[in-house]
Design brief:
Elements: E1 16-20, E2 23-26, E3 31-34, H1 37-40, H2 49-59, H3 72-84, E4 89-93, H4 96-113, E5 121-125, H5 134-140, H6 143-146, E6 156-159, H7 164-170, E7 175-180, E8 183-184, E9 190-191, H8 194-207, E10 210-214, E11 238-241, E12 252-256, H9 258-261, H10 277-290, H11 293-316, E13 321-327, E14 330-335, H12 339-348, E15 351-352, E16 354-356, E17 360-363, H13 371-389
Parallel strand pairs: 3-15, 5-6, 5-7, 7-10, 10-11
Antiparallel strand pairs: 1-2, 2-3, 4-12, 8-9, 11-12, 13-14, 14-17, 16-17
Helix pairs in contact: 2-10, 3-10, 11-13, 12-13
The structure holds pyridoxal-5'-phosphate.
Pyridoxal-5'-phosphate binds next to helix 4.
Length: 390
């Protein structure tokens, strides 16, 4: 008989009933050190007291109102995001996929408004992940995601990741936009070089194309900057955010410049739940905590410590690991073994990790993980790797 929950996931036989900071506690009492964070979502760990307070305070007042009315919590979060980024305006969604949909729609509307409605080609990259809607799978176009779901939405062309020559060839005066993750997440923790991102910005500028960044996974302090593109010293025209922004509450956003968003007038887009008071009350608290220089300095200090220990781990298990990659606390272990086997061996050592493409094991701890927890994580990973050899 079919599972009552649509079986689109291969789930591990573990269920959690409680979380405390970097720890997820299973129903059998086992305490797992959580280096997955619900895939880069729980940026401040589980049951963070500040976020619990923000949520419950709001829950006692009003949960949901329609976007037919003013929503002060939403305006406040928009103010915080505009204040800390390139953006002039923000639309709130419930997920990264919905943010991708709006980003794509905004690009199309921009060119339609410019009197060039046929200018629809968005250049994307192999290994990309932008979500699971029909638009988002067309954008990334990996075989695994698109097989059986055709015909795909037209207007996307995938280029090899990091191949600047291919991009130079492909980008023309008819390119609508270039869309990429500054650090590919699902694709295997693959950062774009700062120099390449600067060059992509310059190529977009000379072709007149919009630059759309997907910071759903790498944004909100994950790389040690509030947003990963800050390392390159450039700004996008449109940016997708989700995962970390809600600290565990479903929340996403599209940030845009006034120019990129100018055609998105009343009636062009909407969402029932997007920007709901509960989500935005939590999101604002996340932003207040994460968008702080002292907090981000700590993320970088911890990232350096973690990375150094991971280099030691790789050196100790040359037959299991090939190297460390990533930026900040968005870390990957490039594996010789199958990452799924390491994830499984991790369960036995009571540590949660996430596999990714390109033979990479993802480590996405809460950004406020403790130094002792980092040391503990590396010990558990060491035992997991050793168990694969035996
Ligand atoms: C997770 C992810 C998405 C999709 O977000 P959902 O909230 O799962 O819809 C889009 N882009 C990137 C880079 C992601 O990591």
């Amino acid at each position: 008989m079919m599972s009552h929950v649509l079986p689109t996931y291969n789930r591990a036989p573990i269920s959690f009933e409680k979380g405390e900071g970097a720890w997820a506690i299973a129903t059998d009492g086992t305490r797992y050190l959580d280096l997955g964070s619900g895939i880069a979502v729980n940026v401040l760990g589980h049951a963070n007291p500040d976020l619990v307070a923000a949520l419950t305070e709001q829950a006692g007042r009003i949960w949901h109102v329609s976007n037919l009315y003013q929503i002060p919590q939403q305006e406040r979060l928009a103010d915080l995001l505009v204040d800390k980024t390139f953006a002039d305006t923000v639309f709130f969604t419930n997920s990264g996929t919905e943010a991708a949909e709006l980003a794509i729609k905004m690009v199309r509307k921009y060119w339609d408004h410019a009197g060039d409605p046929d200018r629809i080609e968005i250049l994307t990259f192999e290994g990309a992940f932008h979500g699971r809607s029909t638009g988002a799978i067309a954008a990334a176009a990996s075989d695994k995601m698109v097989k059986g779901f055709g015909p795909l939405m037209p207007g996307f062309r995938q280029l090899p990741w990091g191949d600047m020559e291919a991009l130079k060839q492909a980008i023309t005066k008819t390119t609508a936009a270039v869309m990429l993750e500054p650090v590919q997440g699902e694709g295997g923790i693959r950062p774009i070089a700062d120099e390449d991102l600067r060059q992509i910005r310059a190529l977009c500028d000379s072709a007149g194309a919009l630059l759309v960044l997907d910071e759903v996974q790498c944004g909100v302090g994950r790389t040690g900057r509030l947003f990963a593109h800050e390392y390159a010293g450039i700004v996008p025209d449109i940016m997708m955010v989700a995962k970390g922004i809600g600290g565990g509450f479903p929340l996403g956003a599209v940030l845009a410049t006034e120019n990129a968003a100018k055609a998105m007038v009343a009636g062009t887009h909407g969402s029932t739940y997007g920007g709901n008071p509960l989500a935005c009350a939590v999101g604002a608290r996340v932003m207040e905590i994460v968008a702080d220089d002292a907090f981000l300095a700590e993320v970088n200090r911890k990232a350096a410590l973690f990375r150094q220990k991971l280099e030691g781990l790789v050196a100790a298990h040359p037959d299991v690991f090939e190297g460390v990659r990533g930026q900040g606390l968005m870390l990957g272990l490039k594996c010789k073994a199958a990452p799924a086997d390491l994830v499984k061996a991790g369960y036995a050592q009571e540590i949660l990790t996430v596999p990714a493409a390109d033979s990479t094991l993802r480590l996405l701890p809460p950004l406020n993980i403790g130094d002792d927890e980092i040391a503990e994580a590396v010990e558990r990973l060491d035992r997991a790797a050793a168990s694969l050899n035996g």
